[in-house]
Every structure is written in C-alpha cells, then in structure tokens.
Amino acid sequence: MRILLAAALAATGLVVLQTPASASAKPPVVTRAALDPALVAGRGAAVDFAEQEAENATTNGTVIGPGRDAYTLPAEASGRKAVKLTPGQYVEFTLPKAANAINVRYSIPDAPGGGGITAPLDVAVNGHKRATMTLTSQYAWLYNQYPFSNDPNAGLLHPDWWITECSCVPNATTPAPEIAKPFRPNHFYDEQRLLLGRTYRAGDTVRLTVPAGSNAEWTVVDLLDSHLVGPPRVEVVAANVLAFGADPTGRRDSAGAIDKAIAFARRAHLKVYIPPGTYQVNRHIVVDDVTITGAGSWYTIIKGRQADLDTPAPDGSVHTGVGFYGKDASAGGSRNVHLSGFAIEGDVRERIDTDQVNGVGGAMSDSTVDGLYIRHTKVGMWFDGPMRNIKITNNVIVDQIADGLNFHTGVTGSVVSNNFFRNTGDDALAMWSDKTADAGNTFDHNTIQTPVLANGIAIYGGTDNTVSNNLIADPIREGSAIQAGSRFGAEPFAGKLRISGNTTVRAGTFELNWKIGLGAIWFYALEKDIDADIEVSGDHYLDSTYNAIMLVSEWSVKDQYAIPKVRFTDIRVDGTGTSVVSARVKGSASFENVDARNVGAVGVNNCGSFNFPPTGSEFSLTDLGGNDGGWLAPWMLPNTITCDDRPPVVPPPAPSPW
Q1: Buried-exposed string 403-420: b where 16+ CB fall within 10 A, e elsewhere
Q2: How far is C-alpha 52 from the chain's CA centre?
Q3: I need a surface site. Which of 155, 235, 558, 569 has the fewest CB within 10 A?
Q4: What pLDDT does 628 receive?
C-alpha cells in the first residue's frame, strides 16, 4: 500500500521522502523559556527557531534538576533542568517543523587546572550520522569572587571581603577559615550552531550522542533550537570586501581589507557587502556613515582572537579584539551606521572590565543594528554616549562574559526590540545613566534567558524610559528579572518610568550577602531616593522563587533613602515561594487589579526600614481595588508591620493558564 501511494504521489509530481521517525521518539514539545508558549503569547522576541528542552526529549541519560541553587548545573539550565549524558548515551529530539540547522546548548567539564577542554558530540538525523560537533568549555567555567578567575585552584580574590560561606571576613578571622576549592564555580554553559546540509521535515529525529571514548566524563545537553535557515543574501551593487583582499577562509587577517572596502563605499556611496565565509579580524573596525551587510549570520562570520595591547589604552584596555565600533563620543561619535546580517565571534575568556572587547561599541547616532549573531565577546553591544536614535533589532546575543547590551551614559531616543539574549555574564539589558541620563529609550519585546549574574533587565537611573513586553527567565544570582536601581553612581530617576506587559518566570534569586531572596521585580534605593513617576502595569510574575515584587534599600542607608510612590496595576502573580510584596525600605506603593494565587507565605512582608515604630511600618500600601486572591488583606493596610526577615520558602506549582 505504501509503495502504491508513493507511486501515485510521484505521478503527480509530489515526492515523499521515506525518513520515518524513531519508533521510540517522543512527540516534540516546543517551549518558550521552558514554558508553554500560550503562557507568554505576545511577549518576548518573535524568533525564527523552535526551542526544545532536553528533559522533554527521548534519552537514556539522566535528567538533572530542577534546582535553583547558584553554582550548580541545574540552576544555570533553561527551565532549571537538563539531561546529563555519559559516553555512549544520547538525547533525541523530534523536529516540530522543517529545519536545516540546529543550535545546541550544552556544558562539559573544565580542565582540572582551568582553561577548558574539547569533546565530541555526534549528530545523527533519522539514524544517519550527519556530523560530529566539537564542544568546548574554553569559554565557560569561571570561579571565585568578582571579577572572577579561570583558575579553579586559586585562593580568594578578595580575602578582605565578607563571604557568606563562613559568615566572616576571611583575612580578619582567627583561626583562618577553610574555603573549599573550586570556590563558587559558575558560567557552565555554551552553545554551538550547525548547518545540517539539507532540509528535514517535521517528525524527523535529531539524536545527539556522546561517542564512546569521549574525554569528557559527562556532557550536559540543555536544549536544542531547530532553524530553517534561508539562502545567503547577495548584494550585487556594493563594495564587496573580496575585491579589497578579504580572505573568506579565515587564514589571513581581513581587517585591513574591510577598512579599505568601507573607505571606498563611503566615497562611492555604496554599501559594504561581506559574502559567505569566515573572516579573521583581531581588532576594532571603526565605522562611520556606512552600511555593512552580510549574507546572513549563519553564512558571514567575523571571527577574531583577543590580542594583547603593547601598552594600555587611555580607557584602560589591555586587550583588543573583534568588534565594530563607532567613534568615541569625545570625538563626536559616529552617525548613519547600519550593520546587518553577519555573526561576530570573539575569543574572550576572562572578565576585565576596562577592556573594550565588545561585539559592537562606541557611539553611533541615527544608526541601526539588525540581524547580528554575537557570541564570546565581553559585552554583545556596549554604547558609550552621549548618542541618540539607535535601533537595535532582531539580534541574537549569547555566551557573553558580561552584559548583553548596555546603554551607558546619555543614550537617548533609542529602541532595543525583538532581540534574543541567553547566558549573559551580567545584566542582559541595561540602561546605565552614568554622569548623563539615558532618556526616552525603550526596551521592548526582547527575550532573555539565564543571565548568570545580575539582572535580565536593569534600569540604573534616567528619564522617561520604558520596559515593555519582554520575557525574562531564570536569572541565576545577585539579581533578578527586572531591576530599577539607584546605584553605580547613576543619575537620579526623573520623569516617567514605565514597566509594562512583561513576563518573568522562575525569577528572584538568593542574595548571598543579605541572605534573603529577591523579587522577580525589585526597586533598589542604594544611593538616592527612587522618586519619579513610576508605573508597573500588565506584568505577569510566574513561579517566582521568593517574592514577586520587592522594594528595598541597603541596611547602611535605610534611614536615608526612600521609594516614595510606585503604582502597580493589572498585574498577575502566579506562584511565589514567599510573598507577593516584600518591603524593606521607607516609602509607599499603590495596587490596583493585582491578582495573586499560589502564594507561599503572607501576601505582604512589610519590614519598612526596620525601625518598627509604634505607628506602624515606614512603608505604606494603598489598595485601589480589584486586588484578588486575598493577598492584600484589609488588616495589612496601610502599614501593618508583618516583618519576617527570612520567611520559609514554599515552592509553588508550575504556572498554568489564568
């Protein structure tokens, strides 16, 4: 019957490929940030791949997790679960739709002395081997205190800092405490892309197998993204870098050739085109008044080594590396720069904050950055203003040592929209109003997963900024999903701050120094009052590890700074380990149509600024109506002290449709 059917279809011009899925394969489970996509509809970036978590696939390995304790493999995995394989074991995914490329997020062990290892991973489709990926841990595995070390055997970087492991300052403690090594291992995961060479159908299977004899004791597979990559883009009327001597094999340095193409394109009023290939670039390409486009980020790859500088640069850099940079703002900055359709792959393996080894940097006004893939740089995009009117769209930024993107100092009238961030080593998205306010900017419809340190989105001061319709999942430590913070010397908040329509999931980390859990969203008055027109509306806080909402100040300044007025409207809270609201500061907030369920402890944990006056807490709450779920009981209003400094955590059930 099958032969007759195939023959009949062939007679009509339709060809059926006989590539049945494995009999044991599980049906595909497609997620977004390890959630049912229906729970986050309309939020986050619209991406061109299907995400499948390894724990939902077929495997003879071991599912690890769930777990949210920092410095563990499950905590840094998407959805806080992954699959651990030993040599000979596999995990098999069923494609949910046609695909010709995959991206694998994984972890393998570090070398005993640090520096990483490489190990193979076999890729088979429908039982036929297609390729062997060479995995690496050379860009993973950091240790110790900030700014971290690559050496697992190193002693404390800051023995004069208080650490929670001994509740002491080690070099001021007698007898000296024993600190286990490696100390605070973190940043375990990396990812790698692979073109499969042909297009496969929905229902076909992709099996990832650790071959026998692998030098990796174990391989953890977190997830697989499957892509249908279009053909390379061709620009005929352009300054083609090949004509200026660029080497698409990557054997020779192409930086000079790209510079020549840019200079010619500016004179001739043409675009610069970088066709398919891998181009070696080990320094900054300075861009101004130019359009540079590639054949697509899967085809055009700008790849470089981190290079030592002979002498430190004026900004303190001791290295340089691959990156596209506008001119410095002090030199007037750059304008009319348009970058699109290529990948930037760096070689950054340590965090040196003075180094300018970012994928895109400098100052670029009236510019666009679209469709780039950036990996293994320090920061994907770090802009030093003042500058204005830049649009950052449709980019993928992964595996960074520090931030994903930072608007630093006087960036105004700019938009970051529809970008995807995963495994950043600091804030995935930040506006830092250092010396000059960032103003009139919008972070909209971005997806952020597993920021290893700090926050998914952080707004440090500024005026009239907006954070809207983003999806933020699985922050790991020393931060959470969304923070508005008066810290790092930032200019004060002024004008309006609008935080609306965002979804957070599995957010709220444990703050080691304070020994408390943070909120999925938190306002932090460390250096100034947070006193502006602030409204949080339409957010969904799902499966928060501790609190959904936190307003806090540092103990040492608790009587100096306040958060006078924040409005929360039309919020859904589905699951908290502790409370809906934790107040640890003086000030006030109002709540309207804030609905909550599956709350682990008292709805409001109100400590105020910890003076406990007989008149009630220094923080007051206003009920504007419609707050369902019983979390905001009348007896709590306006400022009943309900302070439990460290309430027990009750893990909530998984989120479900409201």
Answers
A1: bbbbbbbbbbbbbbbbbb
A2: 18
A3: 155
A4: 97
Residues 6+ apart with CB under 8 A from 400: 374, 375, 376, 377, 378, 379, 380, 423, 424, 425, 426
For 313-367, how does the pLDDT look when each residue is reduced to its tens digit (9 = 90+)? 988 999 999 999 999 999 999 999 999 999 999 999 999 999 999 999 999 999 9
At 458-473, the pLDDT tens digits run 999 999 999 999 999 9
Going by pLDDT thresholds of 50, 70 and 90, the confidence category of residue 25 is: confident
Residue 517, token pair as written in the block? 């859990």
Residue 20 has pLDDT above 50, yes or no: no
Cβ–Cβ < 8 Å for 419, 45: yes
DSSP letter at 13? T
Q: How far apart are CA 400 and CA 450, in angstroms?
A: 11
| Distances from the Cα of 497 to the Cα of 318, 443, 581, 591, angstroms | 37, 12, 20, 17
Q: What gap in Å lies between CA 83 and CA 78, rounded to an integer?
A: 11
The letter for the amino acid at 305 is R
Element of type H or E holding 9: helix 2-11
CA distances from residue 103 to 36, 204, 400, 465 in whole angstroms, order as listed:
20, 16, 16, 34
**Alpha-carbon separation of residue 368 from 125, 255, 340, 439 (angstroms):** 38, 21, 8, 18
Tell me the two tokens of residue 111: 């070398």
Rg (CA), the chain: 25
Query: What's the CA gap between 281 and 78, in Å, rounded?
Result: 32
Q: Are 529 and 557 in contact (CB under 8 A)?
A: no
Q: 529: how many CB neighbours lie within 10 A of its CB?
A: 18
**pTM of structure:** 0.96
The 3 state secondary structure assigned to 223-273 is: EEEEECCCCCCCCCCCEEHHHHCCCCCCCCECHHHHHHHHHHHHHHCCCEE
Of residues 83, 84, 22, the one with CA closest to residue 52: 83
Name the 3-class secondary structure at 634: helix
Amino acid (1-letter code) at residue 543 = D
Residue 192 CB: number of other CB atoms within 10 A? Answer: 16
Give the SS3 label for residue 529.
Answer: coil
Q: What are the residue ranges of helices labelled H in 485-588?
A: none
